[in-house]
Amino acid sequence: QILEWMSDDTFINNNVIKRVWPASQRDACFWSHIRHITSNSDEEPEKWIVVNYSCEHPTCPSGKYVRITMNVAMICETIIEPPANGGDITRDNITCKITYTAEVNPGGWAPASVL
Predict the structure, then answer these.
(1) Which residues contact 55 (CB under 8 A, 6 or more apart)?
(2) Of 5, 23, 92, 114, which is most buried, counting CB atoms within 10 Å of its CB?
(3) Integer Cα distance of 98 and 80 in angstroms
(4) At 5, phi and psi to the nearest 5?
(5) Residue in 102, 112, 96 with CA at minimum distance from that of residue 68
(6) Long-range contacts (CB closer than 8 Å, 24 or more residues apart) made by 13-16
(7) Phi/psi of residue 85, nearest 5 degrees
(8) Each residue of 50-84: pLDDT tens digit?
(9) Is-contact 63 103, C-beta < 8 A?
(10) Please, what is the Cα angle at 113 between 109 and 115, to 5 degrees?
(11) SS3 string of the chain?
């Protein structure tokens, strides 16, 4: 659930995560930012960056669920390698590189059977 838009590309979100028995139900309150990074030349790939970071918000107090905290970043790049023979670019010439890092504290306690 989006709680507040901070700008066109940044908002504060509250996610309630589906409970996996026997663990307690969890939620996360975080801001999320997405940005398109245009390349300076045809040699550099276009990039999208997404960052999610835990925060507090007055309409999302902790206490009803176990609160997850996180710091997550993802960079997606579309890489186009033109054919050596100068032919048309096809899907075979397009790849995606994803760099993802996450530091997540699930909070509370979870039994070994769900880890």
Answers:
(1) 12, 29, 30, 31
(2) 23
(3) 14
(4) -90, 120
(5) 102
(6) 14/57, 14/59, 14/60, 16/65
(7) -85, 5
(8) 999 999 999 988 888 999 999 999 999 988 888 88
(9) no
(10) 65
(11) CEEEEEECCEEEEEEEECCCCCCCCEEEEEEEEEEEECCCCCCCCEEEEEEEEECCCCCCCCCCCEEEEEEEEEEEEEEECCCCCCCCCCHHHEEEEEEEEEEEECCCCCCHHHC
Residue at token pair 């999320």: 32
Q: CB within 8 A of 106, min separation 6: which ones?
A: 26, 66, 68
Tally of residues, the chain? 115
pTM over 0.70: yes
Task: Place 103 in a pLDDT band, splitting at 50, 70 and 90.
Answer: very high
